[in-house]
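so the lab meeting is tmrw and i was supposed to have these ready like two days ago... anyway. pasting both below. for each one the top line is the aa sequence and the line under it is the structure tokens. i havent really looked at them closely yet so no promises
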Amino acid sequence: MLTRKLILKILSVTCLLFGCFSGLHAQNGSGYFYQAENLYKAKNYYEASVVFEKYLATEKKSRPRSTPFAIEKKVKGKANLDPHQEAVYQLATSYRKINDYQKAEKYYKESIKFSEKAYPEARYWYAVTLRANQHYDQARVQIDSFLLTHTEMGDVLIAADREQEDLKFIQLQSERINDLYTVQQMPKKDSAASYALTQRADGFVYTKIKEVTEKNGEKWYMNSLVESMNYENPLENADSLPIPTSSGIHDGMATFSRDGTKMFFTRWTKNNNQTVSYIYMSRWENDRWTKPVKAPDPLNIEGSNSAQPSMTDDGRYLLFSSDREGGSGGYDLWAASLDSGLNAIQVRNLGNVINSSGDDEAPYLHDKTRTLVFSSNGRVGMGGFDIYFAKGSFNLTGWEKPENAGAPLNSSKDDIYYVSTDEDDLWNTGWMSSDRSSECCLALFSVKGNNAKYVRGIVVDCKTRKTVPNAELTVTDLRHPDRVLGKYKADTSGRYAFLIHNSAHFKISLKKEDYEPTSYDYNLQIHPGTDTINNDSICMEAIVYPKKEVERLLKTLEQTSHIGNFAYKKAELNDYTRESLDSLAKILNNYTDLVILIEGYTDGIGGVKYNLILAQKRVDVSIKYLISKGVNPNQLKGKAMGKCCPIAPETINGKDNPAGRERNRRVEYKILNHP
């Protein structure tokens, strides 16, 4: 947390990562002891641990141990102070304070052999370090032993009862199947120095410990904000957020308005082991961040700390943690109502349903589900800070009782700063910070729900409904179009299949030669496990190439020049002839440069003049019908052919052939001009 424990963790990490303590010089055992004690009293725990180790190392070289200076100091319960025991116990405590539980466990284990009267809390802290190091069975034995011999009511007894409840909760978590989520630390060399990620527009901003070199060459390790557009691993390609600042100032834990142009963040300093933190504001104007301004009362109150701001999506509230008066414990969660200019109007405590007697920190509200997520060390959990959630509303008076998010989101170490990256599902995808994989420091972890959808379907031609083979499919995030979820290819029968993880809203885009590109959007529900989705057929429109189309048309027209036949001595259209003319009209209307000649024919009965007149009537009735269907008269020419050109014999073996005569009573077309 930014408070007593996590500020110490954040600032001491600089020494653990980079070895910043160099104030040692050769001296004897007593010199090391007194120097270590002074550092310990000043709460410089990392430096104290280094010197205590020096003292114990020199002590081993000079055994049997001589303690001539032991009588110089007497402590209640410690008749004759043994500097070895005092060094071991304070060394264990120093390591615990800087969250190096592995080494703390080693020295607390030795401490429980000392006088219980002199070190009454040793067994309790030994149990705590065992739990932090996931030695749960041993931790239960030690905490039960401590509670059997310590019955005097006090803070340590209350804490021991809580520790026992924590171990019971851990046991329950270990008995259930924890396969709903995958929590993974981001791979990078300095990942342990990055934490408290938040979203800004389509990118991420998080806090990072960085080396700063002063003009005089002196190096410091400061917390600052960095920004990354890498969705999969924000630790890659991250750049410093250019906020105006000055020497000795730490910046971190930011939150942004929905458009990314307004920022609240935490700015803190540390002097004489005293940390002071306030919430600051800055705006993105003229392609730069304005000089940060300390937020006025009631966001900040002199004499108290305010930190970890988190703005709601609608910009109406700013959540934050503070140790100001009026709270339930150490650090409480508070909500500030904001006006349209993001000025705090009123601040109120979220109440004792949310806040505990410990520290409650890192608030975040998931807008769609109206769920408050935060971390606390004042509730039954898995140890350290655990992530909790509760449903409710700022417009109502109450929140539901917070629930522990459980494993694997929580561990025996500190788990904090959870934010979701899924607008609909709180736990589907997100980020959190934890020191579960580190001796000292918070690191970034991705959170992904263990869900997947096996999507399959077929690609077809929109017109013919025949399958389209080998179409290329690109699947993207529907709400973030630049995020490609996968690229696939349909097989030779037009079928496709792919597996998609943690995505309820996606787009399938298709490409195929000779087809128009197309896309389809999908909005599904997230369910744990793997679902199979059988998509409806996806159709693609074939591209119409004019030249090829005309070639195909001409070939077709040349093959089917016959329009229809007529009854004996008649010029009336029958149903079949009308259907043929309807088809011809569609073609002529689509290709207005196409000009045709309609020719009319008769059978051989009657004179030439009579048959030419009858043939012309058949031509005229056909042209009139085409014009009634919208065909331009300029596309139509007509010619009476009479009985000139029979296509079937009208007599067979000297006998009349009515079928042949019927075939000869006809109209046909020829192409005169085409595109």
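ok protien two:
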Amino acid sequence: MCGIAGILDSGISSESLEAKGRLMMDKLVHRGPDAGGLWRSETCNLVLTHRRLSIQDLSESGHQPMHSASRRYCVVFNGEIYNFRELAAALKQHGHSFSGHSDTEVLLAAIEEWGVAKAVEQFIGMFAFALWDSEDKTLHLCRDRIGEKPLYYGWLYKAFYFASELKAIEAVAPKGGLDIDQSALTGYLRYGYISAPHSIYSRIFKLPPGAFLSLPMRNMQDVAQYSPWPDTPPFSPQTYWSVLNSANHGLSNTFLDEREALEELDQLLRRTVKRQMIADVKVGMFLSGGIDSSLVTAIAQQVASSNVQTYTIGFSEKDFDESRYAEDIARHLGTEHMTMHITPKDALQVVPQISSIYDEPFSDSSQIPAYLVSKLAREHVSVCLSGDGGDELFAGYNRYLWSENIWNKLSVVPRPIRKLLGKVLSIPSPGKWDNLYRIAHTLSADRTVPQKLAGLKLQKLAGFIQQDDIEHGYDYLLSYWHDPKQLLKSSSVCTDNKKVIFPDTNDFISRVMYLDQVAYLPGDNLAKVDRASMAVSLETRLPLLSHEIVDLSWRLPVSMKVRNNTSKWALRQVLYDYIPRELIDRTKMGFSVPIDQWLRGELKVWAQDMLGTINSSGKGVLIEKPVRQAWNEHIKGLRDHSHRLWTVLMFLSWAQSRN
């Protein structure tokens, strides 16, 4: 895992270009603390820079920027190609030889042999790279299929920039060259993250997952002709793999035999985890105690030569703490387990760092424990495997089943009545609903474990049932500020969301899983994992997001993902061969954070101070009144506006750090 950056600017001297390149490189030192490298082209004003976190081939043979054997290509590469050994064996049959054993050297040989477009189709891994072709005078940028590794790029005046993180571009951008993209900000306030291809800045983009961008020198200045949306003539990134094609192919070739499906899934998981355990440094595991991380850890423990180390996060607030489940599973598997319990004071110490870690507004509050568990792991290992992706691939989110079940029951009720019912349910605060629920549960004969966060769930239900249809209801569940225009002084609307092209199915769960795979997964989850881990120089690998597993998941009919109101049916069946059911089957909570309580407690003063900057931060783009209303209602316990407020607070924190 590394950091990459570069500039192509014909308007400055070679000395100034190198100085800018080194400044960009220095801003990414956390992504690669082990070494740094810079290369400048002799034929054009291009510089490529690299920061190295040594994982494969710790020798100088793995140093970057790296040239191909013919010297035609020069690359800066971030990530891992897990099948590099198989590719190296195949390339040796074509006459290639290797001086070291890094995957970057194999990547260059593959491109020399097959060309960029065909080579990337052979790579199994997570990556982002920039490749200069000195023969064709073309710069290629490429990103992995799912979007595990980030890559920003764009034009500022007549110069072209790219980098793993925005901070590297910010460091060298011309004064006044970076303006907030109002439509991107609108999308952020609604969903809490900014989706590719846009970033928080106008003219700076994210390369979409599964795409590469080829920039011939002759087209480098044709910005007016450019579209950041893939496959848009005349000039745009090109798609080499897509979730849409994977879904359509899988849906038309579904498994008919359950036993065959489960055996193939188990074999592929074992092969994938074994591949991702390969490293020249020590490898650990994030273990939350859920289905996904438990399965990855169980397989890793079997294929590892010694007991693996596992790490988990707990909370002092009991309603949010699931660390005991992780400890039970670790004990069963025999891993070397470590738990860190987060307090509100721990969160308060992390909050000032968030704007630096994420570079653009980002408000998934699990960013805090993600950073802290990464920091814990980095004290012992350089690489950690994680179970991220299982929810999106195997129908694990509670909101999938919840939305469908509720809508099927209430859709026959006329909307005016549903709307009235929703408003009635909204009258008591979530806290009052919690108290009523606890009293009712105590008085009843029900001896099951009481529902957690009942008031918050009723608050969501009240809004959900007022929507026009189930798709709008699902979007409501994903939204923080449902009408973000009420917060913005500018009348700009979110125009960057092209109409989503869905796969060929009318099944609701399949459609929303697809939507999450192309939007929420890369925009939120993967951004969180990459930035939180790389902030402490930790490489995180995600076996469940191998594109081979994504392809297989779409071949599983919904009945193998959801059965008898239980999610992740197929994954559970595989997991039961490794871990007893009684350690697994329980109500799912997810990686929830008690941000509502923290904002009323230890984070209250910080939040009040931050809200005091609302008329100055980010050039005062936000309207204060609706934010103040939400804050007052939240502090008084009338409503839980924690996620809405966190979205605003993260924007203000980011904007203040850029003032």
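from a quick look at the 2nd one: The chain has a mean pLDDT of 91. The first strand starts at residue 2 and ends at 8. will dig more after coffe
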